[in-house]
Amino acid sequence: MFTTIVKRDGRVVPYDIQKIENVVYKAMEACSRADHGEASRIAKLVEEKLIEHFEDTAPGVEDIQDTVENTLMENGYAYVARKYILYRAERTRARELNTRLMKIYDELTFADARNSDMKRDNANIDGDNPMGVMLKYGTEGAKDYYLKSLLTPAQSKAYSEGDIHIHDFDFYALTTTCCQIDITKLFHGGFSTGHGFLREPNDIQSYAALACITIQANQNDQHGGQSIPTFDYAMAPGVRKTYRKLYARNFAKAIDLLAPDYEKTSDEIYGAIKELWVKEDIYPTLDGNPVYDAREAELFPMEPELYARVRKFARDYSLRETDRATYQAMEALIHNLNTMHSRAGAQVPFSSLNYGTDTSSEGRMVMRNLLLATQAGLGNGETPIYPIQIFKVKKGVSADPGDPNYDLFHMACQTSAKRLFPNFSFLDAPFNLKYYKPGHPETEVAYMGCRTRVMGNVYDPSREITYGRGNLSFTSINLPRIAIKAKGSIEWFFEELERKMELCTQQLLDRYKIQAAKKVRNYRFLMGQGVWIDSEKLGLDDTVGEILKHGTLSVGFIGLAETLVALTGKHHGESVESQRLGLDIISFMRGFLDRKSRDYTMNFTLLATPAEGLSGRFVKLDAKKFGVIPGITDRAYYTNSFHVPVYYPISVCDKIRIEAPYHALTNAGHICYVELDGAAANNVEAFEKIIRTMGELGIGYGSINHPVDRDPVCGYNGIIGDECPGCGRKESEDGCGFERIRRITGYLVGTLDNFNDAKRAEEHDRVKHTL
Amino acid sequence: MSEYINVAGLIGDSIVDGPGLRFTVFVQGCPHHCPGCHNPESWAFEGGTPMTPEDIFTRMKKNPLLTGVTFSGGEPFCQAAALTPLAKMVRENGWELAIYSGYTFEQLLSDPVKTALLRYADTLIDSLFVLAQRDLTLKYKGSRNQRVIDVQSSLKAGTAVLNTTERWN
Q1: What does the alpha-carbon distance between residue A696 and residue A235 come to, in Å, rounded to a whole number?
Q2: Å from A172 to nearest chain B CA?
Q3: Is the pLDDT higher at A728 or at A668?
Q4: A759 and A450 in contact (C-beta within 8 Å)?
Q5: Do the chains contact at B21 and A690, CB–CB below 8 Å?
């Protein structure tokens, strides 16, 4: 008789009949028929059969299992045998999953990112860099665990098969998406990053530096974008502090220079002015402060003519130096945000800065210099990838000639025509305007990263503000698949869509429950430093569930265009009827989520999904399942959210007009793009006109895509065909290609190398607007 | 019915044929044959699409964003008579009109039919394209010898007056 058996991996181990008895007993137990005697009898029968068949040769594990199965059947244990078969199948699946994971790790370890779509899943991560690969190991391992352990079978199936997509699934049980940070509040009195305390900043350079540190620190607590919703208002105090310091210094210097015999030394003069702002809160300002001027004249009596010269010197120099310091601060901020890796050590933070409405001289100085620094670019004139900048367009403030910040809007257009940022948000769109309260910058809608918007608040209607709030998580629906399966039945389409909405909202709630159980100590910065709204009221070991309700749970969608083609034969760019149906579908989704919001008193919102990895995944699965269907599954990607397909020729105005109504419905965020062919920087007039049109037609958030190329050899920035207009060098010469900056789901990418396959195809298909 | 215009192509929302968003009419047929030409396929006088000014104007009207219209080609002044009614409609609608030509302003003035079309334009980009003077950094010109001319001032002055605004240069 054999004394050993062969395991699956080829190892030979001693045979033990007890093990057979154990599995049989377990199977019986699962059917409530546990019986040690019977288990032992069956085990002996199995052994006899094995001896008969194998004699002295060691049997394999599969052979033994087959024999157990048969023996159970033969002995009237049909139900137990079925349990046993199920158990075997499950073990096989688990084993396969483990093998799958190992295969993934193999690819991550040995494949070149250029050849591995998985390694280019997110264009922000360098898939060749060790920290990038480490991050992918973690990501893939975590996904495997969640899939097997945290999702319900229905959710797991829907996610695996591509009915829905759970975004940032690798962070499923860890944290929330994003936050709009009120840095004014954070800076007040100083804060701690967890590794040391930082005092309240005292000049614009420290303000800008701490803004970066804040974004970096908070990015370690969340997987999504970090936004400063009122960057202009937040930085203005830094300018104010720089100016008063410089003024005091220059005033003292001027007296030294112009009246060397003056009774006070320059240190005494500086000290006296400083005392004024410290003790009496009176200080010189950019615009001139009459209260300060009066005190100054009192403190430093001198000849009127001399005094006038001293003051002029102090003012002129302080203004110039403050402006210079602000520029350097903004330049450093842009450099920092493009270089400091934080998110899992492999990515720079997803930073967004919103600004445009602060009309104070200090706020305006911040914006002008940020725009100038953006135009100048990075060290060698490269286009900065971060931060995403969003300029707020508001009537009476920045929108029209004659408005106090119109000059900055125009400058923002110039900048974006050269550098692709800023994007533009429109505060007069009715769905944004309804929150707007003059004098309360926190009620100005802000956009995060590629498009996220968090404003309405059913949980606490008195707090419909940006500060301290963000998205918790989002899940997207594969709309085209439902449409394909509907086989022309609009009725069935809506029924199925409702089932999928139900599935998504339930899954979002399940995920929320995991997030809700976390404690303040899990998020030392986000919650520990009072960044998230109301977190300052909690202790280190309090759970965050209640305050998270200020955030949003969002359901997104992708491929409205393909959906409409599947249902009606035409997309919404081609037919008025399809547009009507498109609006019906999206209104239905919004209505569903509004109802859920009321039922749960939580913020369920509808998102026009930014779909980087997703746009290719869904269509690949659907093409496999349903075949290549023209206009639906015949490309490498599904069209983003409600966009008119990028390959469809349409005029700028018609595209904006068709897409605008969807902005009102997608309260979790949206963006429209217009594609321009040619050097936008040479025609800012056209650029501005398009942006203004977006505002007039009800767009909430928009931007213009246009080619931005750079020759790394001579530094020329603009459009480059196969020959550099700056130096006449050809693409192929010197073994050094031109850099081509493109926008991908809202983020800029330096070369097409980091695009995944679907996005490369999408970029290739983009047509510029014609007739 | 107006005379047909032989059209090589139409482009709406152009940002490279003049400031603002422009509707560009490329006419078919050109006698100049400049070496290094951007559109040699528009040289032959046969093979374009005949269109009436009304038809083209209707297409322009669909775009509420237009700043202006540009005639390019081909050589627009070879079809001066056919283009004049369209130029009139464009101007009466309040749009700017720019025309590209291989002829010089002075040459155009010596021909009454060509001058009739020119009278409707605000801007003329004149002269042949010269490969040796090609400069890809110029905003709306191909080579440095070409001129951006303020047509109305030039007609008044009787001599070419350059448009030196930043908008065009």
Answers
A1: 30
A2: 45
A3: A668
A4: no
A5: yes
Q: Name the more confident of A367 and A95.
A: A367
Judged by a CB distance cut-off of 8 A, whether residue B113 touches chain A is no
Q: Do B20 and A676 touch (CB under 8 A)?
A: no
What residue type is A685 in one-letter code? E
Cα distances (Å, whole numbers) of residue A262 to A254, A320, A635, B70? 11, 26, 80, 69
- CA dist A199 and A470 (Å) reads 26
* In chain A, residues 608-667 whose CB comes closer than 8 Å to chain B: 651-653
Question: A639, A753, A769: which is closest to A124 by C-alpha?
Answer: A753
A344-355 mean pLDDT: 83
What's the mean pLDDT in A418-424? Answer: 96
Separation CA A200–CA A206 (nearest Å) = 9
Beta bridge pairs of residue A603: A552
Closest CA to A476 of A661, A638, A596: A638
Lowest pLDDT segment from A116-125, A435-444, A732-741, B31-40: A116-125
Contact present, A239 and A366 (Cβ < 8 Å): yes
d(CA A528, CA A520) in angstroms, rounded, equals: 6
Distance of alpha carbon B30 from alpha carbon B78, whole angstroms: 7
Residues of B in contact with A678 (CB under 8 A): 14-16
- A91 pLDDT tier (thresholds 50, 70, 90): confident
- Residue from B43, B40, B59 nearest B51 by CA: B59
Question: Using an 8 Å Cβ cutoff, are A342 and A216 in contact?
Answer: yes
* Residues of B (138-167) whose Cβ lies below 8 Å from A: 139-140, 167
Decide if pLDDT at A97 tops 70.
no
Q: Which of residues 12-41 of B touch A (CB under 8 A)?
A: 12-16, 19-22
Q: How far apart are CA A262 and CA A257, in angstroms?
A: 10
ipTM value for the complex: 0.93
Q: pTM for this structure?
A: 0.87
**Beta strand spans in A394-438 (E):** 423-426
Indicate if the pLDDT at residue A771 is higher than 50.
no
- Looking at residue A179, its amino acid is C
**Averaged pLDDT, B31-55:** 93
- What residues are paired with B97 via a beta bridge? B69
Partners of residue A723 in chain B, C-beta under 8 Å: 136
- Nearest residue on chain A to B20, judged by CA atoms? A686
Q: Give residue-wise pLDDT tens across range A259-317.
A: 999 999 999 999 999 999 999 999 999 999 999 999 999 999 999 999 999 999 999 99
Report the residue of B7, B10, B13, B24 to disrupt the A interface, i.e. the one with the largest count of A CBs within 10 Å.
Answer: B13
Contact in structure between A354 and A234 (CB atoms under 8 Å): no
A 518-577 → B contacts, CB under 8 A? none
End-to-end CA distance of chain B: 39
A570-593 burial: b if 16+ Cβ within 10 Å, else e: bbbbbeeebbebbbebbebbbebb
Q: Taking Cα atoms as reference points, which of A211, A213, A240, A241 lies closest to residue A228?
A: A211
Task: Give me the residues paired with residue A743 across strands.
Answer: A748
Q: Residue A94 corresponds to which tokens in the numbers above?
A: 């688990």
Distance, CA of A300 to chain centre: 55
Work out the widest C-alpha separation in chain B, in whole angstroms.
44
pLDDT attached to residue A768: 59
Contact A679 B16 (CB under 8 A): yes
Which one of B66, B136, B144, B168 would you mutate to disrupt binding with A, by most A Cβ within 10 Å of its Cβ? B136
B143: chain A residues, CB-CB within 8 Å: none
Q: Are strands B123-126 and B96-100 parallel, antiparallel or unpaired?
A: parallel
Report how many helices (DSSP H) and strands (DSSP E) chain A contains, helices first: 24, 19
Q: Which residues of B touch A771 (CB under 8 A)?
A: 10-12, 59
> CB of A771 within 8 Å of any CB in chain B?
yes
